[in-house]
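> forwarded from #structure-qc
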């Protein structure tokens, strides 16, 4: 799985009729509904549609074909989308990924994956959501390119192009070093290429970022190197400790120097909260949503950090990016969270948030010093070390 960052992929379109626009596409709740919906989308795609609608509808159609197990139709859709030069990367990557998982049409999967990468290297600006800043959109495209390069590398591998596959996966890692899908694929590929030491190192990185299944890959690489597993547990622990220490030093010492944009937001109690009111204090500013799986992993750790540091003057503000605001209060009460929860109203864009959770640590002078994107299991320990570092200032 990728590095536990939630990025919204648009699924539903709610638009008026006429002028190349289409009616709302509703959720299919049965196979009969699915068939009707598929026919409707197929008909809609015969129109000349705006780029963002085409991107969404081709992805929806690919998902429907998967549910129907209509593999030939999926391949035909990929061929149709392949001919466009301005959109369709989401559908092409989805199709390639599922063909590879089924171990079928490997050559078609390779063509689709390669085109998805090409489209994502130079994304159409019309695909940028209105609520994203330009910087956030470019960051999101880098994450997406990492995922699509991972699919492309896998497709090259399936087509027995090992060296090209390794290069694609290495590039994927360069765009998102915490993408555990990439690290696992690199480890497996390098084992097959007779590179056990590099395979071991990739597996260790994957474990650090929360992919426990990579333990088996690390052990397989170790056995290839040492011929027995007598000292494996001890060696792996040292490798993890060394890498974690190296990362922690960089995460603590490499501080940002960005003035935190001020904002005025409403909290769930109806009170007004202004960032500048907390001058002279360290502030945690977390962007999250109730529907976001990695946020659900991060928030309990945030609460533990609140319990540890709130009495010491550290401020904790959690900005909900939920569009369905009525879900926020029940979620907070159900989980007994005590940090201040705000409703977003432009702050996400002001802070160039590309995916959630994204957490900023702001120093007593109102300067952003640390930025955390996504979730990793040891994030609470990292936060604690960063707080102590800021207290030294």
């Amino acid at each position: 799985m990728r590095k536990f960052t939630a990025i919204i992929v648009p699924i539903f379109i709610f638009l008026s009729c006429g002028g190349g626009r289409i009616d709302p596409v509703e959720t299919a709740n049965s196979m009969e509904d699915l068939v009707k919906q598929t026919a409707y989308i197929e008909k809609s795609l015969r129109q000349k549609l705006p780029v963002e609608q085409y991107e969404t509808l081709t992805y929806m159609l690919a998902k429907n074909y998967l549910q129907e197990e209509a593999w030939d139709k999926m391949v035909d859709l990929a061929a149709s989308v392949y001919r466009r030069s301005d959109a369709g990367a989401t559908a092409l990557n989805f199709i390639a990924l599922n063909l590879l998982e089924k171990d079928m049409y490997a050559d078609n999967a390779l063509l689709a994956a390669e085109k998805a990468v090409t489209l994502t290297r130079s994304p159409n600006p019309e695909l940028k959501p209105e609520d994203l800043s330009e910087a956030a959109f470019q960051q999101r495209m880098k994450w997406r390119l990492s995922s699509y390069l991972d699919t492309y590398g896998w497709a090259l591998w399936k087509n027995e192009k090992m060296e090209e596959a390794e290069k694609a996966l290495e590039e994927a890692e360069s765009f998102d070093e915490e993408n555990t899908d990439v690290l696992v694929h690199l480890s497996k590929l390098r084992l097959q290429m007779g590179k056990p030491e590099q395979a071991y190192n990739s597996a260790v990185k994957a474990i650090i970022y929360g992919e426990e299944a990579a333990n088996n890959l690390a052990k397989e690489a170790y056995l290839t190197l040492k011929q027995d597993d007598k000292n494996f547990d001890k060696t792996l622990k040292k490798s993890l400790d060394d890498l974690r220490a190296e990362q922690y030093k960089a995460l603590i010492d490499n501080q940002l120097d960005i003035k935190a944009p001020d904002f005025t937001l409403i909290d769930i109690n109806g009170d007004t909260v202004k960032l500048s009111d907390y001058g002279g204090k360290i502030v945690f500013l977390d962007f999250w949503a109730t529907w976001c799986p990695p946020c659900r992993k991060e928030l309990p750790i945030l609460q533990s950090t609140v319990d540890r540091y709130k009495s010491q003057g550290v401020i904790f503000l959690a900005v909900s990016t939920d569009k369905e605001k009525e879900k926020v209060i029940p979620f907070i009460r159900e989980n007994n969270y005590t940090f201040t929860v705000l409703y977003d109203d432009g702050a996400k864009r002001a802070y160039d948030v590309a995916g959630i959770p994204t957490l900023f640590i702001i120093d007593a002078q109102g300067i952003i010093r640390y930025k955390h994107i996504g979730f990793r299991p040891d994030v609470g320990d990292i936060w604690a070390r960063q707080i102590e570092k800021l207290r030294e200032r």
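QC bot note: The chain is about 55% helix and 10% strand. The longest strand covers residues 367-373.
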